Amino acid sequence: MKIAVTGLNNVDNPGPGVPVIRGIREADDFD
Predict the structure, then answer these.
(1) DSSP-H helix ranges across the chain
(2) pTM for the full model?
(3) Distance of CA 22 to the CA centre of its chain
(4) Which tens digit of pLDDT belongs to each residue from 2-30?
């Protein structure tokens, strides 16, 4: 599965790219 996330800058609003990536990496569903 490939997931593309935009808005990688932490100050972007409403582009919460970094927190979304962290959540995906920590989720057990994507192991």
Answers:
(1) 17-26
(2) 0.50
(3) 6
(4) 888 776 666 656 666 778 888 888 888 87
Q: How many residues does the chain have?
A: 31
> The tokens of 14 are what?
């409403």
Amino acid at 21: I
CA distances from 15 to 2, 29, 31 (A): 19, 23, 24
Which residue reads 């995906």 in tokens?
A: 24
- In angstroms, the CA 20 to CA 31 distance is 16
Task: Identify the burial level of 16 via C-beta atoms within 10 angstroms of its C-beta, where 0-12 means exposed, 13-18 middle and 19 or more buried.
Answer: middle
